[in-house]
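TODO from last week: model ANTAR domain-containing protein.
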Amino acid sequence: MPKRFVVAASEFPDLPRFPVGFELAEALTAAAGDLHATGSPGDTMNTAVALAVRLLPEAEHAGISEIQRGGRLRSLAWTDETVRFAAEPRQGGHTPHPDWERLWTTPVVRTDDSEADGGGSVLSGLGLRSTLSLRLRADRRRLTVLTAYARKPQAFDEDATRIGRLFTAHVSLALDSATVREQLTEAMRTRDLIGQATGILMERLDIDAGGAFESLVKASQRENVKLRDLARRIVDANSGAGGRGVTER
């Protein structure tokens, strides 16, 4: 399960608030630098929600959520507790943003006034009148969405939407880059772990590298355990007091 993050926008005091013109280009360049300097997808989202409040006109809060087919929702990052409550599904598991379903087919959804139909929604109950939701990622199973919130109605106009789309393009690129780096790091760790486990089996069973790896694969299939997890178990057992791990060929 992805970690959840909360961050204050004040951590980025050097960025101009609500930039326009050349200031916008400079602000987006600075934001891109901050986003690409992050070390993990979680850090990227953490940075993105803080930057969103600095960059998007009228934005007071921001959050990132993952929406799965069927409406299941999970908050991944937020600037404050107000946003967490705004994004979390209520009893019954329904999303508090029914318009988010449109993000499967369109990159932007705006809520001009959560009280337009008499209120009573999660957003209006929290005093959040306007939202600007921007798609970060989408595949057949899930959406990742960045949403900015404001307390006044009709807060987000076309300019805010334009800035939001430019900003989320940078966020998406940085998020993809961070994900690839994390996957490569994990792949290297997994390779090293399997290599250690193979070496342990070679010594323990007096077999060559090919036989040790085959033994590891067969044990993984037999026990219905991922190869990585089984390798970790063998390495941990070998470093413990007399653990034997896998002994069958």
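Done. Helices lie at 21-36, 41-55, 81-87, 122-125, 158-205, 209-223, 227-239.
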